[in-house]
Amino acid sequence: MRSAFFGNMDQGQQLPGHFALQNSKMLRVHLNGDVLARQGSMVAFQGQMDFDYEGAGGIGKFMKKALTGEGVPTMRVKGQGLLFLAHDADDIHLFYLENEGITVNGSNILAYDAHLQSDIQRVQGAGIAAGGLFNTTLTGTGWVALTTHGTPVMLDCGRAPTFVDGQSAVAWSSHLQVGVNRTFKIGALIGRGSGEAMQLAFQGQGFVLVQASEGPTVPPHTH
């Protein structure tokens, strides 16, 4: 699995394949066929393209999305030319899968090659006791573009057991062993905490991509 941070590239530099970073906030797709992208993420295009709503991919996937709340509405873009995608000026991180899988928080998906296989699965090791965590899995060979709140960090889980806030973990190697680590501390009652802090625990050879945010801030109650 190959990945690239924009900070290691020159602006507009193209990666192998047809996904490239126009800049840290915008993806450029050299389209000659079709690609799946987050609905509403198109900011510009050059050439001839059609945009169609992409269904859930069968009753099974539709039910999974409805029951789990996982995933993001997607559109299928067909045609030829240059397609520019972005979402809320979030940072963009690219992966190239080589006959392998990645587990992703569905809300962080910006675009991926249409021939990749997708499914919604319960996070390994995070069952009902963890609130029923579900993520999207993408498998096969091709490009995946993810968005993150701020510049992310890539952690090598092979170096040591790795623990990540459940809302900050964006994606990880699908073959990693995943568990849940819970801590009960009085400090967790402060702010948005519910009284218990939950981290995903990763072990094995692989990576986890961590964003510099725990998600949108919950507004204070007025009553």
UniProtKB/TrEMBL annotation:
SUPFAM superfamilies: TRAP-like. Coiled coil: none annotated. It comes from Actinomadura keratinilytica. This is AIM24 family protein. Pfam families: AIM24. InterPro entries: AIM24, AIM24_sf, Trp_RNA-bd_attenuator-like_dom.
